[in-house]
């Protein structure tokens, strides 16, 4: 009943103050949650492997999102770093005008992440520090996995600017990974990606021919095909090289605290 007697101007001011206080509370909660995720990640990886690898792993996640962030800024979209989750990191940005812009934003992540993997390998080559070799392999495999052409993965967002057919090619890879991995957490994540991917791909296929959002000229499609193919081939080639040239299990065992 009190609000009935409050002048409208004062009522609006109270609303604004209330929203600001709510945003502050949400920001504090978000900061605490991110701090918890970072601390937990550093502690787990730091004690299981080493703290240099733990910091490097977080850097891989940040650099990947930084690639998305820079591209979104280049396209003059409002964008902020969302924070960390138990399975990675994320940014939030306003909706792009079309799938072409969305594909460009998405390409920025694995591109910059792949460059970081190369930098880590160069540091290993110069110093002989196996931690950087492990980080190089980690960066390459994370960014390569993200290029599987199934939404919500980066690859799914990229190939929607090329053809809906490519969106179905990624499912056999996900099924293979689901069968291959022994880790329960990885199986749950892959199951979630397949379920979300099936739903999003179905909707995308229906809208592809009628929705103007998906209209991309042939020249742009050819450019996306070339960039996407080169990125996948370079990361896949790098992963195969490291996997065959080094025993990655021995690498991680070498840098782990517990031999």
Automatic annotation (TrEMBL):
Per the annotation, which location comes first and is thus the protein's main one? Answer: membrane
A GO molecular function assigned to this protein is: metallopeptidase activity
Would the keyword Transmembrane be found if you checked this record's keyword annotation? yes
Q: Cite the entry's keywords alphabetically.
A: Hydrolase, Membrane, Metal-binding, Metalloprotease, Protease, Transmembrane, Transmembrane helix, Zinc
Record domain Peptidase M50: where: 54-126
InterPro entries of this UniProt entry? Peptidase_M50 (IPR008915)
Any Pfam family: Peptidase_M50
The keyword Metal-binding appears for this protein:
yes
Q: Which GO terms describe its biological process?
A: proteolysis
One GO cellular component term noted in the UniProt record for this chain: membrane
Cellular compartment(s):
Membrane
- Give TM segment ranges: 31-49, 69-91, 103-124, 130-150, 162-179, 185-202, 222-243
Cofactor(s) listed: Zn(2+)
Domain of life of the native organism:
Bacteria
In what way does this protein cross or attach to the membrane?
Answer: Multi-pass membrane protein
Q: Which family does it belong to?
A: Belongs to the peptidase M50B family.
Q: What is this protein called?
A: Peptidase family M50
Native organism: Clostridium ljungdahlii (strain ATCC 55383 / DSM 13528 / PETC)
């Amino acid at each position: 009943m009190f609000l009935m007697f409050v002048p409208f101007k004062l009522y609006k001011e109270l609303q604004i103050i209330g929203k600001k206080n709510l945003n502050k509370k949400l920001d504090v909660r978000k900061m605490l949650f991110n701090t918890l995720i970072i601390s937990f990640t550093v502690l787990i990886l730091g004690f299981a492997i080493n703290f240099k690898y733990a910091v490097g792993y977080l850097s891989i996640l940040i650099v990947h999102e930084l690639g998305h962030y820079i591209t979104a800024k280049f396209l003059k979209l409002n964008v902020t770093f969302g924070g960390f989750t138990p399975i990675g990191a994320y940014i939030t940005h306003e909706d792009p005008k079309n799938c072409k812009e969305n594909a460009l934003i998405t390409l920025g992540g694995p591109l910059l992440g792949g460059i970081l993997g190369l930098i880590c390998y160069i540091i290993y080559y110069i110093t002989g520090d196996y931690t950087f070799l492990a980080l190089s392999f980690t960066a390459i495999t994370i960014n390569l996995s993200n290029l599987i052409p199934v939404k919500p993965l980066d690859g799914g967002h990229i190939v929607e600017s090329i053809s809906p057919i490519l969106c179905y090619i990624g499912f056999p890879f996900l099924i293979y990974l689901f069968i291959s991995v022994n880790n329960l957490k990885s199986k749950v994540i892959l199951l979630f990606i397949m379920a979300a991917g099936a739903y999003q791909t179905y909707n995308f296929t229906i809208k592809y021919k009628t929705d103007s959002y998906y209209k991309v000229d042939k020249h742009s499609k050819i450019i996306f095909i070339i960039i996407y193919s080169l990125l996948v081939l370079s990361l896949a080639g790098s992963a195969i090289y490291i996997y065959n040239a080094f025993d990655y299990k021995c690498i991680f065992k070498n840098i782990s605290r517990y031999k």
